Amino acid sequence: QVQLVESGGGLVQSGGSLRISCVSSGRTFSTTSMGWFRQAPGKEREFVAALTWSGNTTYYRTSVKGRFTISRDNSKNTVYLQMNSLKPEDTAVYYCAAKKAGWGLTWETSRQGSFHYWGQGTQVTVSS
Known about the structure:
Layout: E1 4-7, E2 10-13, E3 18-24, E4 34-39, E5 46-51, E6 58-60, E7 68-73, E8 78-83, E9 92-98, H1 107-112, E10 117-118, E11 122-127
Parallel strand pairs: 2-11
Antiparallel strand pairs: 1-3, 3-8, 4-5, 4-9, 5-6, 7-8, 9-10, 9-11
């Protein structure tokens, strides 16, 4: 069983930046595709970003393109989400997700949330 632990959330002003992290306990992190999702109060969980195990392919929801960047450091079993130019509508609990090792990643499976493991989430609040 893979454990995912997010950190780095907090309160930031509109226009500010924040980087959240997710550490995986998986022994095969380097061959695991990862993703970030978020859920605002009263709303359904939505896809934010994802990247393949190689890091060569990334996917983003339209509203965060150009502002958010997903990246990974396989030496630290960690995936990051750098969030710039934050807006109040970015306020949500952000969840890290992982595929099983070796499973492929596509835009469709990312958008649908087809991941096998999930973290507990970290709160990001953007004040106006």
